[in-house]
Write a structure and sequence with these properties.
The protein is α/β, with parallel strands linked by helices. It is 44% helix and 13% strand. The chain has a nine-stranded mixed β-sheet with strand order 1-2-17-16-7-6-3-4-5, sandwiched between helices. A four-stranded parallel β-sheet has the order 11-12-10-15. The longest helix has 22 residues.
Length: 701
């Protein structure tokens, strides 16, 4: 039999099967592009108007009133649909007159952004086919440099329901100087824009408010759209009424992370030798970590806001007995957090599960009180040193050990002399518990504003460094053991000709009636095992250990192995879930209704996201009412306040109640949940984030 000659590559590439399976377009892409999300009932009407309401109240920041006088009195606006017979000619003319609208993506991508454009485009073309939509290229730089492209039906259709911001790209430039503002004004004038829609996070919507103020007299409306996978744009009024339950992109990113982390649950429970450490995006808020925990039932999930609320009652009580108050008892320490994690690892290992999944939010260290205290104190020490010595701290102390010695001297002086120092002995002790690389990080040069550069910290490395160190100590003390199933023990001993009931009481901490058996703490090596067995008269001294005993012991010795994973860019670039497809398409329609009705300085939003789609209500929220003074880069600035996890919310309370169950530190199976991948076909895709489903129950249970 002779081998046939391989066909020429040109002929192979021209084969229809090869062309089909290597094409950019596949069945999933075709289905996504062809899907048309449903719209809120009001958008089925030929016209929409805005109905202002005083139902919601926001406390206005005095600085916002001073800097944003032209939009500061905006109120919440509800989009209302009107039929042909319900409309005056002036309303019809206002809704249908020819407009030019610009749209820009600002900040990192979030799944669903393309559908904001699609919703805006479809609504605008439905109102008047001569309406023009311009997309600014590469974010706000496109506005400053007048780099825009007019969007066509073909271009919009190409990206419907797809992830990324690929259609017009994105960027992080801020329009925050008079020169940039003037260039933006010129761009709007040259393009003849009636309105500008800014799709972004808290900083970008803050930027939208200032643009609305600056362009007000030019007749250019500015509308913001809430985008961030972190889920930290959530709007409630002063009384707690929810106007925007979640920014878009959050559900898709959480589902993408959850699918991958669920796969790791399958992996670790299969080869039973790894702890998977999963860091998920969320520097300021832990919403993604909470949603991922609810999606996957990971064995342990640290929620930063929960740790910030921690109170060490034992320390408080000890201080009270001395007639003092220990303010360091408020907030979880880094050491305590590592001990909490170690405790979970030990308890699982005791029932034979020396593996698991741990979820950490990216910004977990920012919720550790002592870390914040360290940063404040070290900033002060470095600044004082530079001022006092008229030199540079980092130039005088080049090596980490030199810097640590300087801190030790400060601690000693605070203890031994009448010397007032921000750095005391307790600070020094706690600081020395931190791994060297993190000490180095906390002592590196500050940025141009004197601030610590937190983004450079490897969170998971810091936490797991402490965990591993403590586990090593416990292992040396014989306290970290892998539990041996009774069945395995008895089978192994009998196979080697030994009586399991005779050796069991001498070998294990508890023997009678236990499903999993823990080797005694005093037995932490083959030598101590031999000594213990000889002491009990089970073997002769200096004789080799029976092979079954050695095998049982080695199986009880833990080998703590970790795999580190970071979930961020993959989630923000994923294709959107059906929820985000529908949500963002309606946000685009809402943005057009706000533009068509002359609104400016408003954020397009959809109320009742946490409930069934039939109850969704498109609204405009005054951005100025959400702004507060915060320290940014060493100075106070007006920004939209980020929303963090509410530890009194139903979603968090459910997680807290199920933590013990999901830790699964008991014989039997784990309780891992399989959320599955994001899919666009079938009927099993969930309708909305689990956190929203649970929080919607508030007041009902």
């Amino acid at each position: 039999m002779t081998e046939s000659a391989a066909p020429p590559i040109e002929e192979l590439l021209g084969h229809p099967v090869v062309a089909e399976v290597t094409a950019n377009v596949n069945a999933e892409l075709v289905e996504r592009r062809s899907y048309r999300p449903p719209v809120c009932k009001v958008f089925d009407s030929p016209y929409t108007v805005l109905e202002e309401t005083d139902e919601y109240h926001f406390e206005i920041d005095a600085e916002a009133r001073r800097q944003l006088p032209k939009i500061i009195d905006n109120r919440v606006q509800k989009v209302v649909g009107l039929g042909e017979t319900d409309c005056s000619d002036s309303i019809k003319e206002r809704c249908t007159r020819r407009r030019s609208i610009g749209i820009v993506f600002s900040g990192g991508p979030a799944p669903g952004g393309h559908n904001v454009i699609a919703g805006l485009y479809d609504a605008a073309k439905k109102a008047n086919p001569e309406n023009r939509i311009f997309g600014f290229i590469l974010g706000p730089d496109g506005i400053i440099e007048n780099d825009a492209v007019e969007l066509t039906q073909e271009r919009v259709d190409q990206f419907r329901n797809l992830g990324g911001f690929t259609m017009i790209k994105t960027g992080r430039t801020k329009i925050d100087t008079p020169k940039k503002m003037e260039l933006s004004r010129q761009t709007c004038k040259e393009l003849g824009l009636d309105a500008l829609v800014i799709v972004g996070g808290d900083d970008s919507n803050t930027n939208a408010a200032f643009l609305a103020q600056e362009l007000y007299d030019d007749g250019v409306q500015v509308i913001g759209v809430p985008k961030t996978i972190d889920g930290d744009i959530q709007v409630r009024d002063d009384s707690g009424k929810v106007l925007c339950a979640m920014s878009f992109g959050f559900h898709s990113a959480a589902r993408a992370f959850a699918a991958d982390i669920s796969n790791l649950s399958n992996d670790c429970s299969s080869d039973v030798k790894y702890w998977h450490i999963c860091k998920v995006m969320g520097r300021v808020a832990s919403h993604l970590a909470l949603e991922v925990a609810l999606q996957t039932h990971a064995n342990m999930t640290m929620i930063g806001e929960d740790m910030a609320n921690y109170v060490d009652k034992r320390r408080l009580e000890a201080a009270r007995s001395d007639g003092t108050t220990d303010y360091t008892a408020y907030g979880m320490t880094l050491r305590h957090m590592s001990r909490v994690i170690c405790d979970g690892i030990l308890r699982r290992a005791a029932v034979g599960k020396n593996y698991g999944v741990l979820v950490l939010p990216e910004g977990v260290l920012e919720f550790i009180n002592e870390i914040q205290v360290f940063i404040i104190k070290l900033n002060t020490i470095i600044a004082d040193y530079n001022k006092t010595h008229d030199t540079d701290f980092h130039s005088d102390f080049l090596l980490l050990e030199d810097k640590l010695e300087y801190l030790r001297r400060l601690a000693r002086r605070s203890r031994e002399e009448e010397f007032l120092s921000v750095w005391n002995t307790r600070d020094d002790d706690l600081f020395n518990d931190i791994p060297d690389f993190f000490q180095e990080g906390l002592l590196t040069e500050r940025d141009a504003h004197g601030n610590f550069q937190f983004s450079q910290v490897e969170t998971e490395k810091v936490v797991m460094g402490l965990v591993k160190d403590y586990l090593d100590q416990l292992k040396e003390r014989g306290q970290y053991k892998v539990g041996i199933s009774r069945e395995y023990y008895e089978k192994t001993m009998k196979k080697g000709g030994l009586d399991p009931d005779r050796f069991g009481p001498a070998l294990f901490q508890k023997f009678e009636g236990e499903e999993y058996l823990l080797v005694k703490e005093s037995i932490f090596s083959l030598k101590t095992l031999s000594q213990e067995m000889a002491k009990e008269g089970l073997i002769e001294e200096k004789k080799p250990l029976p092979e079954p005993l050695e095998k049982i012991f080695k199986k009880s010795v833990p080998n703590f192995k970790t795999q580190i994973h970071f979930y961020g860019y993959d989630g923000r670039g994923s294709d959107p879930t059906r929820f985000d497809c529908i949500y963002t398409y309606n946000l685009g329609h809402t943005a057009f209704s706000l533009v068509a009705n002359k609104a400016t300085g408003q954020m397009a939003a959809v109320k009742n996201l946490e409930h069934d789609f039939e109850t969704w209500t498109p609204i405009g929220i005054p951005i100025s009412g959400l702004m507060r003074l915060e320290e940014r880069k060493g100075r106070l600035a007006l920004v939209i306040e980020k929303s963090v996890v509410d530890t009194n919310s139903t979603s968090f309370r459910v997680l807290e109640a199920l933590r013990e169950k999901w830790l699964a530190a008991a014989p039997g199976d784990d309780h891992y949940r399989r959320p599955g991948p994001i899919r666009f076909s079938g009927k099993s895709e969930e309708e909305r984030p689990i956190t929203l489903v649970l929080n919607a129950l508030e007041g009902q249970v």
